[in-house]
Amino acid sequence: MWIVQEVVLAREILIGLGDKFFPWKYLESIAETVALSTRMQQMEQMDSTRSTINAHTEWMALVEQRSQWRKKVDNTVTLKSLMSLIQQFSRQRCTNVRDKVIGLLGLASADVTHLADYSLPLEDFFSAVCQHVFAESSMTIEASQ
Predict the structure, then answer these.
(1) Which residues have a Cβ under 8 Å from the Cβ of 80 and sit 6 or more positions away?
(2) What is the pLDDT of residues 69-118, one digit of tens each?
(3) Which of 1, 29, 66, 101 has its CA 20 to 30 A from that of 116?
(4) Are residues 130 and 86 part of one domain?
(5) Measured between alpha carbons, how far is 140 from 145 in angstroms, rounded to an integer?
(6) Same domain for 38 and 6
(7) Are residues 3 and 18 in the same domain?
(8) Same-domain pairing of 118 and 65
(9) Which residues contact 2 (CB under 8 A, 6 or more apart)?
(10) Which domain holds residue 96?
(11) How many domains does the chain have?
């Protein structure tokens, strides 16, 4: 899970393949092509593309998040809520289940560093996360009314 934050926040990324290295923008181009291809397939065959979309979701989410973060650095994109980040990267694997949240804290729109507490019992940790998410949702609902 920590790879998400590392990839999104890195200034520059080179992807190694054997003895060759490629800039991250090549992966972005591939992701855009795959997304377009997937949308075209979806139009052609609505039922059979679900597995294709799911197969690409994890790495495409990472590419999309990095792209959005890079735009944010240029002050053009709003950061995501902790809940939307958790949903977007929920399929990522990690050894410690707390890392499904803690690995994303640096990308969240609010200051949530207080949630990075490995000393809390698991139930208390997720209770604190839920309290934050509910409070964040409440603020979003109030702001939209």
Answers:
(1) 68, 88, 107, 108, 109
(2) 666 655 555 568 889 888 888 888 888 999 989 988 888 878 888 999 99
(3) 66
(4) yes
(5) 9
(6) yes
(7) yes
(8) no
(9) 94, 99, 103
(10) 78-145
(11) 2
